[in-house]
């Protein structure tokens, strides 16, 4: 029987963006209170009986959010080059947090980014450490 544990933490940040080449009002500058969910998965626990300390996941997620908080996203790399869509932001968080948190036993398995209370993207890659 395969066992899988998936942790999830929630944090948030506020920032403005404009969507380039967008045929609607989102091409004008506007802001969101983004909500970020980070999932970390493992199939075995550490000696403390944890996948990973929630505190470590929250710390890394908050540090990355701080780079975007109260900023105009289109000014910040890589969103000065690629559109600051929910999809591209989710990939940015996935890659950044994977670099910081993944180890031989546990890995960032999904990022869910809520752009509004009614719309989010869930981003995943190959499910392996
Ligand atoms: N696939 C995507 N679609 C849209 C994105 C995106 O990042 N990925 N972004 C936007 C805009 O940034 C917009 O601010 C969000 O629009 P929307 O979800 O429509 O939010 P509203 O609250 O304005 O819409 P309601 O109809 O009131 O729910 C657009 N699309
Ligand atoms: Zn928007």
From TrEMBL:
Its EC number is 4.-.-.-. Its cofactor is Zn(2+). Signal peptide: none annotated. It comes from the Bacteria. Pathway: Purine metabolism; 7-cyano-7-deazaguanine biosynthesis. Binds 1 zinc ion per subunit. Zn(2+) binds at residues 17, 30, 32. The active site is at 26 (proton acceptor), 70 (charge relay system), 115 (charge relay system). GO terms for biological process: tRNA queuosine(34) biosynthetic process. Pfam families: PTPS (PF01242). Keywords: Lyase, Metal-binding, Queuosine biosynthesis, Zinc. The keyword Transferase does not apply. PANTHER family: 6-CARBOXY-5,6,7,8-TETRAHYDROPTERIN SYNTHASE (PTHR12589:SF8), PYRUVOYL TETRAHYDROBIOPTERIN SYNTHASE (PTHR12589). This is 6-carboxy-5,6,7,8-tetrahydropterin synthase.
